[in-house]
Amino acid sequence: MSERRASTGITVACAQMDPELGDIEGNIDRTERGIREAAARGAELVVLPECASGGWAFADRGESERAAQPLVGGPTITAWQKLSAELGIWVCGGFGESTADGALYNSSVLIAPDGVKSLYRKVHLWNTENLAFDPGDLGYPVVETPFGRVGMLICYDAWIPESFRSLAVRGADLALAPSDWVPNPHQPADMPPLAHIMVTAGAHSNQMYVAASSRFGVERGQEFIGRSAIADHTGWLLATAGDAEEVITASIDPVGSREQRRNDPFNRPLGDRRISQYALGEVETGLA
Amino acid sequence: MSERRASTGITVACAQMDPELGDIEGNIDRTERGIREAAARGAELVVLPECASGGWAFADRGESERAAQPLVGGPTITAWQKLSAELGIWVCGGFGESTADGALYNSSVLIAPDGVKSLYRKVHLWNTENLAFDPGDLGYPVVETPFGRVGMLICYDAWIPESFRSLAVRGADLALAPSDWVPNPHQPADMPPLAHIMVTAGAHSNQMYVAASSRFGVERGQEFIGRSAIADHTGWLLATAGDAEEVITASIDPVGSREQRRNDPFNRPLGDRRISQYALGEVETGLA
Questions:
Q1: For each of chain B's 288 residues, which pLDDT tens digit applies?
Q2: CA-nearest residue of chain B to A167?
Q3: Alpha carbon distances (Å) from B83 to A234, B51, B97
Q4: Cα separation of A146 and B163, whole Å?
Q5: What number of CA atoms fall less than 13 Å from residue B23's CA on the CB side?
Q6: Is B155 a catalytic residue?
Q7: PROSITE patterns recorded for this chain (chains A, B) (predicted)?
Q8: Catalytic site residue A122?
């Protein structure tokens, strides 16, 4: 058992940074700094924030288009791929994606040293993102890796419990969440940030690890809180960041803990579902 | 607008107590104390804990059966109905339910001064409850009341996000959650109890109010934490209890806030769902 854990466990890192709107080259440098620090600290996987390639607060679709790039051959993905191969570290990061048919997505990519392994397109656009991006159309892909089955979600997706749940249903052990977390207007001072509550609830209810890398700083008046967080499968946080540039790390073992998670004698909120009893379609009356 | 709020808003109360295993008459007295205090403090609706009629820690099905009662004509429901009519207060509480065909449910009831309005049977049994009860078979009913559309869930149901979601899909403005919250074995001292995290996440992601009444005390070695909580539709807690006998109250307006909740410019996690992108069936591989 301990041998198995030793062979499957990894160090995961979240590199928190402050990307600059439209500055593709400068942001490549910023992400490189985080990726190199994560690798130097022994991480096998590093998560970067949402829209780490070109910033977030686009005024319109023209602006987001100028900062976007294709998955294959784009400058940021190319740079991350090169660093991944050089350092032997997996890289997950958010980027503005343009496609050949003119679509624009708030996307994230999972890159292994030998190539791109997964692409996710943000399903739930938040606020003014609707002016800059098309809603994601790939659902919630999950891929096998040496450190477990991995899926992605982006920022506000974590507010909608179907995001974590869809990953869990598809077998994910670990959710990676590039994020640009903003302050909650009603946040009480004596409670954790709402983002941490969503991460803890999502990790616990789905018995999966979560690594969420957020940004800090201000863009066009929109403040970001940082506070990147890594949760284990109980939901509680193994590591958290402050509100400045920082790389946080945690030791996790998504593969080695599968048996324990499956047979948890205390709580089994994923296995205890009773699908026949639910109403999960369109809202039948009222609010939405 | 203020007139509308004044006409639809209510004071909701949670009466936290320590029921005794198998002591039906004593527990009627305990709940009466909480109901009367809630009414005296101006509450139009009071929520009692899970299994407030006969306790929780049943060793086997024989024991839970001896403490159970039918919905119609059972001593506890009869007593609550009488108090509801006398005091003009709605009562929601948990009770062990027996049926004519020999089923046993961990149930909750919503009683108006003029009669029973809704019955819920706990969908997700936790731990040893599986020895004492049958799993609920009514899904998540929602009923119209003068203070909004109301549904119920019980304790561990809140750990499974489909519970809150099913209520929201059926149009609920307010979820009532009779609970017997237990300590989380991994609870960090510097974080809110996991139960509060689940209530906050459920209320926020579904833009609904939640009133959760928990018990305290120890039954057959099982500790309960109390910490009853009332959340508004942002998820943040309006009132919380400690770990002793206590009635907490909060002013809420589920009907008057519908427009505001529907058009929240900041977050609309219920309205922003994209059902076509989800995987919500049986787990496809792995954990469960």
A1: 344 445 789 999 999 999 999 999 999 999 999 999 999 999 999 999 999 999 999 999 999 999 999 999 999 999 999 999 999 999 999 999 999 999 999 999 999 999 999 999 999 999 999 999 999 999 999 999 999 999 999 999 999 999 999 999 999 999 999 999 999 999 999 999 999 999 999 999 999 999 999 999 999 999 999 999 999 999 999 999 999 999 999 999 999 999 888 888 778 999 999 999 999 999 987 544
A2: B279
A3: 42, 18, 20
A4: 34
A5: 11
A6: yes
A7: CN_HYDROLASE
A8: yes
Domains of chain A: 2-272 (3.60.110.10)
Q: Judge whether B151 and B158 are in contact, CB under 8 Å.
A: no
DSSP 8-state secondary structure symbol assigned to residue A147? T
Tokens of B239: 């009132």
Query: Which residue, chain included where needed, has tokens 């003009």?
Result: B88
Closest CA to A95 of A49, A153, A34, A39: A49
A218 bridge partner residues: A223
* Residues A267, A163: Cα–Cα separation, whole Å: 20
In three-state secondary structure terms, A134 is: strand
- CA-nearest residue of chain B to A163? B278
- Catalytic residue at A50? yes
| Whether B262 and A194 lie within 8 Å, measured CB to CB | no
Using only the alpha carbons of chain B, give its radius of gyration: 18
Q: Which residue in B57, B62, B12 sits closest to B217, CA to CA?
A: B57
Q: What's the gap in Å between the CA of A89 and the closest CA on chain B?
A: 25
pLDDT, one tens digit per residue, over A82-111 is 999 999 999 999 999 999 999 999 999 999
For every residue of A137-151, DSSP letters joined together read -S---EEEETTEEEE
Residues in A closer than 8 angstroms to B170, CB to CB, are: 279, 284-285
CA–CA separation, B179 vs B129, rounded Å? 13
DSSP H or E segment with residue B200: helix B194-206
**Cα separation, A155 vs A222, whole angstroms:** 15
Tell me whether residues B280 and A169 touch, CB distance under 8 A: yes
Handedness of CA B71, B76, B79, B81 (dihedral sign): negative
Residue A239 dihedral angles phi and psi, to the nearest 5°: -155, 145
Residues of A in contact with B239 (CB under 8 A): none
Nearest residue on chain A to B254, alpha-carbon basis: A287
Distance of alpha carbon A25 from alpha carbon B232, whole angstroms:
44
